Amino acid sequence: MASSMPTAPGELASGSILQRIMSGRQENLLLCLAISVFALYPLVDELFDIGRLGSMGSIMIYVLLAMGLNIVVGYAGLLDLGYAAFFAIGAYTMGLLTSPKSFFIKEGYVPEWLQHFWPALAVSWVVAAIFGVLLGAPTLRLRGDYLAIVTLGFGEIVPNFFLNAEKITNGTLGLNPVGKPSTFTIFGHKFAFAPTDQDNWYWLILAICVLSLFMIRRFYNSRLGRTWQAVREDEIAAASMGVNLVRTKLWAFALGASFAGFAGSLSAAYFQYVHPANFEFIVSITILSMVVLGGIGNIYGVIAGALLIGFFDRILTEELTPPLNSLGDALSIDFLANHNLTQDKFLIFGLALVLTMLLRPEGLFPSARRKAEFHPEEDKISEHEQQQMYDIREMDEPAVGERA
User: Which residue from 71, 171, 233, 243 puts its CA 20 to 30 A from 274's CA?
Assistant: First the structure.
C-alpha cells in the first residue's frame, strides 16, 4: 500500500489562505447581488404600483441604526440601552446646523458653508462619535447590568434635554424645515430631493447604508475588530495579552454612536422634522431587538433582523389590518372589525423575542463563533459543559483514619 505523504505546513497555510480568499469572493458576489436587488426596488415599486417606497426609506434607516448598534453589542459585547440618544444627537445636529428656525443660525453662529446637507452630515457623524466617547469614558469600569443602567439613563437624559432646552432646540415645536441635498445631475438624470422624490431619497439612504456596511466590515476585519472580539470573550484575558481595554471600548462606543449620527441626520432631512418624541426609549429597544433577532455579531444577520422587524412595523401591520377588519365583519366580532394591528406591534415584538430566545437563542443568522458557543459540534464538548464541577475541598479531604 502506498503511504500517504505528510502535508507540509506551508501547504496547509496556503490552502487556508486560498479558502478564505474564495469565501471572501463569494461573500462579495452575494453582497453585490443583494445591493443590486435593493437598488432596483424603486423601479419594481413603480412598475407594480406597490406604493411602499416611503416605508422602505424608513426601514433602511433602521438598518443603518442596527449596523451601528451591532458594533457596540455584537462586536465589543457592551450592552447599550440608550442608543436612541445618539440617533437624537445626529438628528438635532443636522437640524441645528441647517434649519432656519435654529437658534445658532438666527444668532449667526453657523457659517454659510456649514448650513448645507453634506457638511452637516459629516459634522453629525463626528459629533455623535464625540458623545459616544463622552458616554464611554465614565463607564469603562462597568460591565453587564451596570453598564446597561448607565446607558439607559443617558438615553433618557438626551431627549429630555432637547425637549426642555426650548430656546436652543425649539422645544415641543421641534425643528422644521431641515436642510436637504441640493439638486444635481448624473448621466443626464436629475436627482432632486423634494418630498415627492421618494426614489432619490431611497437611493441616497441605500448608498449611505452601503458605505457604512463597507466601513464596518473593514473595521471588523482589522486589528481593531479582533481586539473587540477579544474583549467580548474575556476582558481579563484580553488585557493580559496586551489589549488596551480603554482604547478598544472607546473606539466601539465612538464608532457605534457615529453611525447612529449618520442615521439621525438622514432621518431629519428625510422627514423634514426633528422632535424629541421620535427618540424615546422604545426606539433603543426596537433597534436592540433587530440585533438580537438577526444574530448578534453577524452584520448580515443584523441587517436581516432590521429588515424583518422594519417590514413588520412599517408595512405588514398596515397591510394586515383591513383583512382582519373584514374577517371581523364577516364573523360579527366587533373587536376584530374595529381593531388596528399597529397597536399590537410591540406585543408581537415581545413574543417574537421570547420565542427566539427559547428556540434559537443565537438569533436567526448568527456568526459562526456565536453559533459554535450555543451548539458545539461534538457531543463530548456539550457533555463537558453540562458536567458539574468537582468540589476540590471534598477531593482533598483525607479519608476516615488517614492522617491529614
Answer: 71
- The DSSP result for 82-132, as a single string, is -THHHHHHHHHHHHHHH-TT-HHHHTT-S-GGGSSHHHHHHHHHHHHHHHH
* Cα(60)–Cα(37) distance, integer angstroms: 14
Residues 64, 40, 69: CA angle, nearest 5 degrees: 10
Model pLDDT for residues 340-379, shown as the tens digit of each residue: 888 888 888 788 888 888 888 888 888 777 766 666 655 5
- CA torsion sign for 145, 358, 60, 316 is negative
Q: What are the C-alpha distances in Å from 120 to residues 17, 62, 75, 116, 223?
A: 42, 20, 28, 6, 30
- CA distance linking residue 106 with residue 358, whole number of Å: 54
pTM listed for this prediction:
0.86
Q: How far apart are CA 151 and CA 257, in angstroms?
A: 12
The CATH-assigned architecture of domain 45-384 is Orthogonal Bundle (1.10)
Q: How far apart are CA 302 and CA 404, in angstroms?
A: 58
DSSP string, 155-174: HHHHHHHHHH-HHHH-GGG-
In whole angstroms, give the CA distance from residue 15 to residue 22. Answer: 11
> What pLDDT is attached to residue 89?
95
The answer to whether 125 and 261 have CB atoms below 8 angstroms apart is yes
In the chain, domain spans: 45-384
Averaged pLDDT of the chain:
84
DSSP assignments along 176-189, one per residue: -S---PPPEEETTE
Q: C-alpha distances in angstroms, 81 versus 84, 147, 288? A: 8, 9, 8
Residues, the chain, total?
A: 404
DSSP output for 294-313 = H-TT-HHHHHHHHHHHHHII
Check: CB of residue 276 under 8 Å from CB of residue 267: no
The contacts found for 351-355 with CB under 8 angstroms, 24 or more apart, are 352/289, 352/293, 353/289, 353/292, 353/293
Among residues 236, 273, 259, which one has the least CA distance to residue 92? 273
